[in-house]
Amino acid sequence: MAQVGPNLTETRLSGQTIIDQLIRNMELGRFEMAYSVLLPCIFDVYLHPEDHARLSGVFLLIAEDAKRALAARVAQLNTTPTILGIRRGSKAGKEYKIASRDWVIEFFPDSEGAIPLGDVEIHSELNETEQPGFRGMKTTLLGREPSTTLARPTGPRGQAVSRIDRVYAEIRYEDDSGPQLYLVTQNQVRVGRGGDDVQMDLALYANDEVSREHLVVRRDAATGQFFLTDKSTNGTWLDGRRLKKGVEERLPERGEIGVAEVLTLAFEVRR
């Protein structure tokens, strides 16, 4: 059970405290799958109005520092056998990751009079799009039990969306970890099984018929047109036609990409 020190609320809330609580929330909100563990990456941070006013000028700096700390913690989780002090045991080997390209952290003043001065309340989600069956994690600083809850109503997440790269296309597929949706927010997406020394943008959980780097989807920034290149041993198909290895071909706005006759990626441009 959490222990709360004396006169905690008399201590001025610091950026380090907020970052520590973001990491705590991220770990408590993990969502386990067969081959990986998703961690929350969308955070709404609620502060007492006085704390919010005092820190409003440095929220961007706190958020940037917090992102570095969160990334470091994820890296640590992927190299150590414990989480929250509990040994992972038979679950060792699962990859800890986030469902978006980056964390989104927003700060709000408490309008309900529920947060004491010096405290912080954090609501999180696994992704910008609410996940079916997952209602989010709420944690507070002052020793109160974490709970699963809907985020507070804050209106449209306009500021958060503006800090996430524009979504150019989507890729839907089902691998050994279940149905997946990948949002294309960059001009190049490397796709494959990956490995310790081969990092993929879209890592597929499949057998070794899928190459570690199987294919590359490239977007031409000037025209918005997408292209596909096969880099595999066992082949890549586009709408049923096998591609020549190493030869870049134009992608239609909607198409099916076959990966080594193991799985299919449903590609679609977003407008």
Written account of the structure:
The protein has 2 domains: 12-163, FhaA, phosphopeptide-binding domain (DUF3662) (hypothetical protein PF0899 fold), CATH 3.30.2320; 169-269, Tumour Suppressor Smad4 (Sandwich). Helix content is 17%, strand content 32%. It has helices at residues 15-28, 49-55, 59-77, 158-163, and strands at 31-32, 36-38, 42-47, 82-83, 86-87, 95-97, 104-109, 120-125, 137-140, 147-148, 169-175, 178-184, 188-192, 202-203, 215-219, 226-230, 236-238, 241-242, 249-250, 254-259, 263-269. A hairpin with a 3-residue loop joins strand 20 and strand 21. Helix 1 crosses helix 3 (59-77). The protein is elongated and about 65 Å long. It starts with 14 loop residues before the first helix and ends with a strand.
Question: Kindly, what is the distance between the CA atoms of the first and last residues, rounded to a whole number of angstroms?
Answer: 49 Å
CATH architecture of the largest domain: 2-Layer Sandwich
Output the radius of gyration.
Answer: 21 Å
- Categorize the overall geometry: elongated
Going by CATH, the homologous superfamily of the largest domain would be FhaA, phosphopeptide-binding domain (DUF3662)
Whole-number mean pLDDT: 81
Q: Which strand-content bin applies to the residues? A: 25-35%
**Spatial strand sequence of the major β-sheet:** 12-11-21-20-17-18
Helicity level? 10-25%
> What is the fold-level CATH name, i.e. the topology of the largest domain?
hypothetical protein PF0899 fold
Number of strands: 21
Which consecutive residue ranges, at least 5 long each, have pLDDT under 50? 1-9, 87-91, 131-135, 145-151, 153-165
H/E element order: HEEEHHEEEEEEEHEEEEEEEEEEE
In the CATH scheme, the class of the largest domain would be: Alpha Beta
What is the count of distinct domains?
2
Q: What's the number of helices?
A: 4
Structural class: alpha+beta
Largest sheet: 6 strands, antiparallel
